[in-house]
Amino acid sequence: MAVTLHGTKEIIIVEVKPELVLQSSISTRKVYVGLTSLTPTTLAAGSLDPPCVDILDMAGNVLKTPDPVTDGEKLVSDPWFLSTTRQGNILMSCGEYGARSVLCLTPHGDVVFRYQPTQPWPSLRGITETNTGHILVIYLNANCVFQLSASGTFVRKVLTSRDGITSPHSLCLCESQHLYVIDDDCLKIYRFTRNT
Asked: Domain 2-116 maps to which CATH number in 3.30.70.980, 3.40.50.300, 3.10.180.10, 2.130.10.10?
């Protein structure tokens, strides 16, 4: 497991045994926030200053910085939350500043899709892909988890305040289809089904 350390220019590699065992650390030239593994030897890491996503090797060297622009607007604004699709593309939620959208990029920087919520000033958080290729995203302002299709169109709300969601931040969907949601200062576990 690779983890960014808030406010530092370091990524740590941890083994889960089930206790956490520090394996190594990677020094970087930037402070990174979001992080996802693209291949066994490369990571995609989100930086806030400057706002970008870098492709890194396991020594912390920047191999590429995809920098998509549409109609003169930089699309990567605050990549706090990243995930990798089964096709090896980078999913990110940019939900604090600037673009405020869900973005899917190839590692070369081509835009696969961009989804922008219709509500003003959305605050987007955690993001992950399901085993069917759908995408789950946390929408903090609406206190919900919503689902997008693999092509980036809105499908439905999956979890709302009726399900006990009050201040969701991040999420993870495991192979057993349990959806783990960090909600305020609690970890909540839901069984994810097509009808959840």
From this structure: 2.130.10.10
